[in-house]
């Protein structure tokens, strides 16, 4: 009888664990233990729906500080509406709410309240914290707003302070309707007429109200409106109140903000929370993993959460339910869809390819929105936040467009896309290095960007060549001979910066000579956020051509090996001192493999092109296990708008998008024994890894839809058609598997392509 009871309780425990909602695995605290000098993600506890127009987050940092939340902080000073995709670009359209008890304190430093992480709950659909003073704050999101609930201690005063952040703002208080309306216009890349209008509704009557500004911190009790720098408001409720707060915002008008509030926030707090939970569970169940540890599931779903935040929707719905938007490029209102808050230098690599699998309808709308943005801005966006910032290098909008087209997402005019790209490739725009092309004349006349010249000249040459391949690929696929021939030569320009003597990509002067001195460990100068060891591999479209330059497959694989076996030596170069990317490479302990930044993230998979796929299988599993977790130290560097998370999601499923702009994904080694991807078309693609565990990381054999499969890649249509990839895993490499030339993934220079 005693044994039966124990068995029964054990069964109940197992069933309860199996039925745990997937959203409970995802922690929004992942990567929050970050600071200026060392990033473990540079994230904040984002409370949001997938690709929501805005999100909400607790705020530990001062107004205007890019590190809005740091895990090491002891106090919180606000709960912000946020759009921030990187602390380096700061935030925009921000305002915050904050509860306090006792006396009214508006100064952001003085009002900050102490908390502990033990009193904090942080999931995508729900954030909760109880301060040491016993005030509890809860938040759940909608796409363009949020529902907050503040519970004040019994018998104590109950204040809520609205902070207008760091630029101009305006507020109007209506005690009759229990409402505050207003606007803020903070941000870096915004038109002159930009405003984020908000409507805030409270379910409790106001006992006292007033305005203030965060420059003078002077309060004006009974004043119902104020405009100016940092203008805000405050309200006092009855003692011990529980106050529900509905918030919605609009870039179009106050009336639209109210319409959105009525559309999205119809019920009480519990119903908003339930709907948000259902939204994330629906998405997470579309990528259902089985097997693995609880920790691996937490890491996977935490990463899947961040992979589905950016780009933000920038459109709203009118009275007829039709989408329209305020353009951050021309300051006008247009019909249709728009998306913002993304740096394509990061996200073309994995985040957008993941979207083509999970969200083809959104991806189709996005591609047309790219062309609309180009018409409104005069240039393709490359770093939109919400307008064009032009950060980093390359012209990767063409990668997004080509990748979508090659995967059957054909919602745009390819000739218009190619014409717009040609304008990008043969001009320099005013907004930053990736707005048009720095060094474009050199690139076309010399075949490379010369150095001294633009910062990152070698990196620019390599990425321009890849982007030109994408334009070539789109032109060829759509029968556009003019653009096909135009870019057919330029896509091989990577060869012009390869030095056969040193075996590295190197900077060249305008006269054709190599720039000296040269140290492959030196960061900066001709290399963007890296060194020659990191940038050697950035020939996504022609790995076989790179293999040929290096001297064949054996030498190529040996060079790949060297990245991991070398010391983590850093020559700070033109940076003059250690920057966070350098420190993150050293902390990771993987030699010169700097997974915390994007240029080298595809490198592991290149072993598949050199007929040593077992090394890719080993290293990809090692990296996932060593530098990712669901905790505050969860990333090896900046998370970067879903890219570093998407790398993990795809890699954990067993494949990766080495060359967006083709229909192939290169196979690695999956984390889980089974993963089921449910597509928008209702079909399912299953990756099953038999006998999989942390030791059995090597693929022994494979079948695709029941037939033996030796290739080291799968195609997009393999996935979208539905099917089953079965991998037999083992503890030792299967060195004889997949040795045919046709088993290797796509390269321009490979036989048959």
TrEMBL record:
Its EC number is 3.2.1.-. Residues 1-18 form the signal peptide. Residues 256-731 form the Glycosyl hydrolase family domain. InterPro entries: 6-hairpin_glycosidase_sf, GH-type_carb-bd, GH92_a_mannosidase_put, GH92_N, Glyco_hydro_92, PNGase. It comes from the Bacteria. Pfam families: Glyco_hydro_92, Glyco_hydro_92N. Residues 734-744 have a biased composition (Basic and acidic residues). Its cofactor is Ca(2+). Residues 733-753 are annotated as: Disordered. The keyword Calcium applies. Residues 28-250 form the Glycosyl hydrolase family 92 N-terminal domain. Gene3D superfamilies: 2.70.98.10, alpha-1,2-mannosidase, alpha-1,2-mannosidases domains, GH92 mannosidase domain. The keyword Amino-acid biosynthesis does not apply. Keywords: Calcium, Glycosidase, Hydrolase, Signal. One of its GO terms (molecular function) is hydrolase activity, acting on glycosyl bonds. Monomer. This is GH92 family glycosyl hydrolase. It comes from Chitinophaga horti.
């Amino acid at each position: 009888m005693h044994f039966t009871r124990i068995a029964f309780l054990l069964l109940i425990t197992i069933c309860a664990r199996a039925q745990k909602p997937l959203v409970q695995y995802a922690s929004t605290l992942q990567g929050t233990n970050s600071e200026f000098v060392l990033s473990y993600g540079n994230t904040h506890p984002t409370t949001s729906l997938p690709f929501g127009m805005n999100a909400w987050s607790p705020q530990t940092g001062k107004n205007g500080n890019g590190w809005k939340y740091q895990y090491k902080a002891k106090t919180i000073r606000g709960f912000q509406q946020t759009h921030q995709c990187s602390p380096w670009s700061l935030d925009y359209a921000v305002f915050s709410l904050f509860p306090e008890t006792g006396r009214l304190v508006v100064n952001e430093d003085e009002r900050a309240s102490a908390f502990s992480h033990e009193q904090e709950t942080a999931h995508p659909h729900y954030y909760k914290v109880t301060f040491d003073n016993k005030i509890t704050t809860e938040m759940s999101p909608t796409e363009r707003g949020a529902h907050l609930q503040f519970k004040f201690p019994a018998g104590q005063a109950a204040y809520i302070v609205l902070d207008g952040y760091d630029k101009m703002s305006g507020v109007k208080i209506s005690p009759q309707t229990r409402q505050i309306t207003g606007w803020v216009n903070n941000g870096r890349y915004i038109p002159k007429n930009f405003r984020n209008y908000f409507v805030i509704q409270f379910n409790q009557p106001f006992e006292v109200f007033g305005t203030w500004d965060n420059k003078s911190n002077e309060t004006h009790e009974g004043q119902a409106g104020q405009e100016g720098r940092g203008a805000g408001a405050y309200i006092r409720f009855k003692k011990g109140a529980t106050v529900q707060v509905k918030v919605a915002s609009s870039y179009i008008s106050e009336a639209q903000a109210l319409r959105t509030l009525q559309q999205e926030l119809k019920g009480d707090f519990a119903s908003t929370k339930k709907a948000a939970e259902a939204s994330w569970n629906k998405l997470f169940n579309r990528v259902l993993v089985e097997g693995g540890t609880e920790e691996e599931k937490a890491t996977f779903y935490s990463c899947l959460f961040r992979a589905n935040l950016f780009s933000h929707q920038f459109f709203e719905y009118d009275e007829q339910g039709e989408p329209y938007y305020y353009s951050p490029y021309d300051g006008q209102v247009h019909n249709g869809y728009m998306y913002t808050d993304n740096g394509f230098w990061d996200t073309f690599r994995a985040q957008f390819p993941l979207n083509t699998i999970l969200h083809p309808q959104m991806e189709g709308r996005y591609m047309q929105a790219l062309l609309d943005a180009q018409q409104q801005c005069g240039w393709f966006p490359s770093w939109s936040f919400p307008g064009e910032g032009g950060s980093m290098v390359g012209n990767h909008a063409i990668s997004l467009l080509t990748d979508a087209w090659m995967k059957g997402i054909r919602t745009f005019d390819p000739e218009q896309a190619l014409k717009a790209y040609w304008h990008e490739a043969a001009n320099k725009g005013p907004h930053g290095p990736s707005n048009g092309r720095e060094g474009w004349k050199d690139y076309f006349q010399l075949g490379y960007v010369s150095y001294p010249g633009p910062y990152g000249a070698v990196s620019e040459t390599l990425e321009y060549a890849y982007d030109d391949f994408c334009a070539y690929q789109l032109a060829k696929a759509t029968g556009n001979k003019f653009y096909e021939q135009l870019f057919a030569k330029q896509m091989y320009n990577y060869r012009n910066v390869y030095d056969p003597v040193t075996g590295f990509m190197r900077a060249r002067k305008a006269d054709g000579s190599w720039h000296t001195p040269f140290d492959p460990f030196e960061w900066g100068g001709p290399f963007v956020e890296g060194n020659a060891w990191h940038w050697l591999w950035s020939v996504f479209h022609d790995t076989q051509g790179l293999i040929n330059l290096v001297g064949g497959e054996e030498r190529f694989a040996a060079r790949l090996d060297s990245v991991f076996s070398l010391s983590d030596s850093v020559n700070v170069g033109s940076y003059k001192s250690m920057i966070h990317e350098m420190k993150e490479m050293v902390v990771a302990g993987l030699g010169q493999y700097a997974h915390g930044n994007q240029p080298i993230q595809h490198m592991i998979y290149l072993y598949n092109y050199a007929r040593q796929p077992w090394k890719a299988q080993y290293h990809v599993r090692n990296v996932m296990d060593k530098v990712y977790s669901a905790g505050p130290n969860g990333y090896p560097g900046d998370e970067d708008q879903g890219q570093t998370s998407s790398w993990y999601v795809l890699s954990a499923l067993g494949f990766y998008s080495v060359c967006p702009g083709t229909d192939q994904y290169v196979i690695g080694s999956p984390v889980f024994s089974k993963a089921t991807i449910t597509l928008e078309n209702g079909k399912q693609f299953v990756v099953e890894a038999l006998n999989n565990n942390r030791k059995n990381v090597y693929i022994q054999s494979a079948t695709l839809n029941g037939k033996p499969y030796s290739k080291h890649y799968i195609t997009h249509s393999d996935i979208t058609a539905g099917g089953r990839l079965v991998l037999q895993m083992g503890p030792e490499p299967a060195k004889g598997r997949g040795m045919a030339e046709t088993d290797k993934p796509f390269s321009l220079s490979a036989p048959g392509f």
